[in-house]
Amino acid sequence: MTATRLDGKTTRDEIFDDLRTRVAALAAAGRTPGLGTVLVGEDPGSQAYVRGKHNDCAKVGIASLRRDLPADVTAAQLGETLDELNADPACTGYIVQLPLPRHLDEVAALERIDPAKDADGLHPVNLGRLVLGEPAPLPCTPRGIVALLRRYDVSLDGARVAVVGRGTTVGRPLGLLLTRRSENATVVLCHTGTRDLAAELRRADVIVAGAGVPHLVTADMVAPGAAVLDVGVSRTDDGLVGDVHPDVAQVAGFLSPNPGGVGLMTRAMLLANVVGLAEGVFGRPGPQ
Ligand SMILES: Nc1nc2c(c(=O)[nH]1)N[C@@H](CN(C=O)c1ccc(C(=O)N[C@@H](CCC(=O)O)C(=O)O)cc1)CN2
């Protein structure tokens, strides 16, 4: 078997076509959406992700606001930048690029974002709305994973999904999203404490690998025909390496590669959140 590719680029391009129309309508009403990014330090990976986000904005007509801060910025200075974006009407949604340098408190930074401008859906108010099933901007990678599976008609209804990784941006919110009634999956959230990872993966109809361990998922761990999404990335001497071994393509029914898969969907969903925030589709705004 050679797996059908879950193509993030094609799906991203389709989403951009829809966003372009919606951004034009907002602009015509004098409400051009603007994405703000706050990047601390000079990590090359984070710089590339932020650059990619602003390139995407240009493609659909969203305005860009970049705030690049030095690696030794203080918590107070970072807080001032976030307050400034909270108050700026040109910024309709923004993100703090993660991870932050160790001396800064990520949770404190996320809590300082106005929930009504939380383009990543990572503010506790919006994560709480996800738990409650209320409308909210959703964390971008989980939203992108669900959109990619839908685009290729991979059914989640009643499916067993094994998620590898319990982080705040992918694993935990993905578990919440997939177990909503609309998705209706059964989720096993695997992590470093999981006793027999291979056994959990072999039972799964869908595997989402986001542990950041090169080639963690090998062909013998995958049920024939399963859908496998590679969300992990490690920078090695051999370049970027995903969590999924290339041989998995011989066993899986569907495979989302890395690069070329979920990462592009993450960026597309960020823009979808920014447009949704500007349109006011996420219900009542959070506390100011
Ligand atoms: N504030 C946030 N920080 C981080 C998030 C996030 O969602 N919000 N996720 C990751 C990084 N990330 C977005 O910020 C991200 C990761 C990967 C890609 C991407 O386009 N991947 C490409 C390959 C890219 C490469 O060559 O390096 C692909 O899959 O084709 C985009 C965004 C951590 N931080």
Sum up the overall morphology in one term.
Answer: globular
Order of SSEs: EHEHEHEHHHEHEHEEEEEH
Q: Share of helix among residues?
A: 25-40%
Unreliable residue stretches: none
CA-to-CA gap between the ends? 54 Å
Bound small molecules, by name, code or SMILES, are:
ligand LMY7XDAE
What's the number of extended β-strand segments? Answer: 11
Radius of gyration: 19 Å
How many helices?
A: 9
Largest sheet: 6 strands, parallel
Percent strand equals 15-25%
Would you tell me the structural class of the helices and strands? alpha/beta
Main β-sheet, spatial strand arrangement = 1-11-8-7-5-6
Mean pLDDT comes to 96
Structure write-up:
There is one protein chain. The chain has 9 helices and 11 strands. With 288 residues, it is of the alpha/beta class. The strands form 3 sheets. Strands 1-11-8-7-5-6 form a 6-stranded parallel beta sheet. The protein has a 3-stranded parallel beta sheet with strand order 3-2-4, with helices on both faces. The longest helix is centred in the N-terminal third of the chain and has 21 residues. The structure holds ligand LMY7XDAE. The site of ligand LMY7XDAE has 21 residues, from helix 2, strand 4, helix 6 and helix 9. The ligand Nc1nc2c(c(=O)[nH]1)N[C@@H](CN(C=O)c1ccc(C(=O)N[C@@H](CCC(=O)O)C(=O)O)cc1)CN2 binds next to helix 2, strand 4, helix 6 and helix 9. Belongs to the tetrahydrofolate dehydrogenase/cyclohydrolase family.
